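ARCHIVE CARD
SHELF: 3
SLOT: left
DATA:
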Amino acid sequence: MYLLLTLQYDGYDYHGWVKQKNAKTIQGELEKAFFRVSHQQLWMLGSSKTDQQVHAWDQKVLVKLSFIPKDVGFFIKTVSASLPLDINIKDYEIRDENFGVRNVLEKEYVYTINDGAVDIFNCRYELKYPRSLDVNKLNQIAQVFVGTHDFFNFSGVKKWESINTIRTINKIWVERNGHHKILIHVQAKAFIRYQIRMMVQNILACYEGKISLADIKTQLANLPGSKKTSFCAKPYGLCLVKITY
């Protein structure tokens, strides 16, 4: 039996989604919860490999069960109740074995910046910025990333890794949500390691005059002699908010 879970989590205290031997991860905790309830091992695959301290509002996880629960809804609620308080199974759907959990049409991430007073109850979910920001200017700078580019210089990918670093940013926009919350939305079919965080910090660096739009364009062109960016925003401001199939 295949189930598609909609998972939410506060990733601040976790070493990302992917299960690791000596680290606390979201996948690891989810597998433990299923085993506590069913006493059986299972297979699962997440749609997005969120990094350490990155959050999710709409992570999708495909789970293969070796049995069929009498009451699937009650079973999932029981599993969710046995998870840590910062992980929750929001919903589930029954799928067939041919469903590709990573064959998404689009993913949307949001990076949150607080340019006002310290918000002690939300500091785990946002980057604190010391001065008021001009949203229109940020939005203008952000458009440099829209379209298809080689994001090698804006990623954690090493030269020896055989990973395709060409990605297409469908849309990126910046808005102010309330007095002191700035949201940077980024939509694409797929991303690579650290890509969004590097994009965000480069937008801020350009805003501050540390680099120019021409510098960003040169790095996006990935011309001989171009170097990887040294700017990378903190992970805890980033959240996976929507996956579309």
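SLOT: right
DATA:
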Amino acid sequence: MSRAVGDPQTAAAGTRADRAVPGRRGRPRSAAADSAIIEAVLRLIEEGAAIGELSMERIAREAGVGKATVYRRWPGKHALMLDVMRSLDTPPPVLEGASVRDDLVALLEFLRRRGLAKRNSALLRTVVSHVQAHPELWAEYHETVVRARNEALLRVLRRGMASGEIRSDRDAETLADLFVGPMLARAILHEWRELPEGLAADIVDTVLEGVRPGP
């Protein structure tokens, strides 16, 4: 159940944390240490530790690094936990921009594949359940991860409204819920239901049929 040290997502998370502290001086960052620290947090959470129970000292000990190594990368546990959460996510797909339907399918296919990644999805839910008890962390997670994903979907829908492919007399955010709701329901609320190939296209085509402008 442990993530492989050196996973590119965790390494990328460390890079983001480094950029968050401008003007830093000293030795070059070690990607291996970044990954080991994030891996240590994930391992501790998987073993049942709550965020409130984790200290930077305990995380450093679990990662096999010195406490100073952790603090050189993250000024505190809040910043570290944000990168831990980001390490469990992947950026939305690059959209072609030529077809509203195809872009919507690509975004929902991204959600379908995340749902199939059982370990990542399960661990992300575990982390989120802890983070929800910390309002500042939860709010920043939404600002940095969830909002970016939602904005990508809203841009596609607004493009469809402007081109006449989607009716423009409805709220874009409500339409977004209609598209992602069925996929999220299967991926998160009803895990026993299958997420077959072609599901994203089926959902998009079904919803588009109802939101196209009338004759």
